[in-house]
Amino acid sequence: MDLEADGPSTRRRGPELEAALLDAAWDELTEKGYSGLTFDAVAERAHTSRPVIYRRWSERESLVLAAIRHHYDAEPIDIPDTGSLRGDLYALLRLASDRRADMAVMISAQLAGLFSETGMSLGTARERLLGQGTIWDTVILTRAQERGEIDLDAVPARVQSLPFDLMRHELLMTHEPVSDEFIATVVDEMFLPLVAHHMDYGNGVVPPD
Amino acid sequence: MDLEADGPSTRRRGPELEAALLDAAWDELTEKGYSGLTFDAVAERAHTSRPVIYRRWSERESLVLAAIRHHYDAEPIDIPDTGSLRGDLYALLRLASDRRADMAVMISAQLAGLFSETGMSLGTARERLLGQGTIWDTVILTRAQERGEIDLDAVPARVQSLPFDLMRHELLMTHEPVSDEFIATVVDEMFLPLVAHHMDYGNGVVPPD
DNA sequence: CCATTTAGATACACGATTGTATCTAAATGA
DNA sequence: TCATTTAGATACAATCGTGTATCTAAATGG
Questions:
Q1: Range of the domain at A116
Q2: Which residues of chain B have pLDDT under 50?
Q3: Is residue B92 in some structural domain?
Q4: Which of residues 46-75 of B touch strand C (CB under 7 A)?
């Protein structure tokens, strides 16, 4: 065996080795995607051999799920408590986006079947497939605006799970952490106004106590 | 060759054959996903052989993209014009969801690397990976509700691209056409209120003429 | 320090898929 | 009808990943 590269002939065991394997699996997963992940590549990346992996996880699914859990256990997100909903949302969306962008990449790592091989993102694929610009919503909204039903400049491009659904959507589409502008839009121009609206006109719910 | 099954010994050519190949590719794509699609399976499904495919598309990517284009050219969505934004939205969301659910399935067909092999949907995967229920948004919103900042019952689970982003998100998560309840929620409890809000309080934009 | 465990290397047979080459016979056009 | 095209069958080598078996030597625990 070659001893020059890194650790001087040290042979890992137990948890340390396991962590290295799962890290390698995670990396392979984000790069190649689930269906592109091979035991071989994981073993090589972890500087070991296939049998070492097979002894722990005999199926790809279990290996991958273990790798994902391991990755997230490694850096848990602590939910912010700023004292206000707005502050919590800003903080959590920023945090979740930065820390979980790889989750979207991972989820898309499944998508990666197509995308990793071709270098396409989901958004790019949509563009390539749908043509350039004029899509349904644009047409309808333009029409609506022409009828005076809506002012597109007054309605930003972007309520309970809304911010998270939209963030997840954004992450899936771009494979990048969302921008500050995105968060501001979602929180201050969508979520909070909707909250206000529904608190003003919502059904007269009374707490059950 | 076997002549009993269907068409009596007729040998397809040109456009007819090409359409059959692309249909077969589409079907394989939705069933197996991009990375699970093989020239072999496509050929077999089209009742022909691999060389016939290779003569037209030598790469998987070009075959798949051609298949997707062919599929959507076959049944284009005509944008509804009901006379009102609300009506247009209801109609278009319904139509797009029904007709493009397979698009999400297709997009997820990429996701299918993991999901087709394991029978998981993206939503199921999220559940399995995140645990049972108590996630960020729930915690924060519960907190906010406890502070009286928000009434969860008054704010439904669900602005310009909002309905479509949310529908796309929904399709990706469930792999099913969205429900009428989903459309109603998005349109009447999210999008339209936001439109109203932003038209009332939006920036005083003046048409540039 | 010896016994036990187990990491890591290597090798193997197997199956699936690829891309091409070759041959035939069916469709088409002049 | 005859020449040209090309669909479709078949076969092939080559590659890649799988899953297992086997051997060695390093780590660990008593």
A1: 85-201
A2: 1-8, 109, 111-120, 126, 129-137, 139-141, 144, 150, 152, 154-158, 201-209
A3: yes
A4: 50-51, 54, 58-60
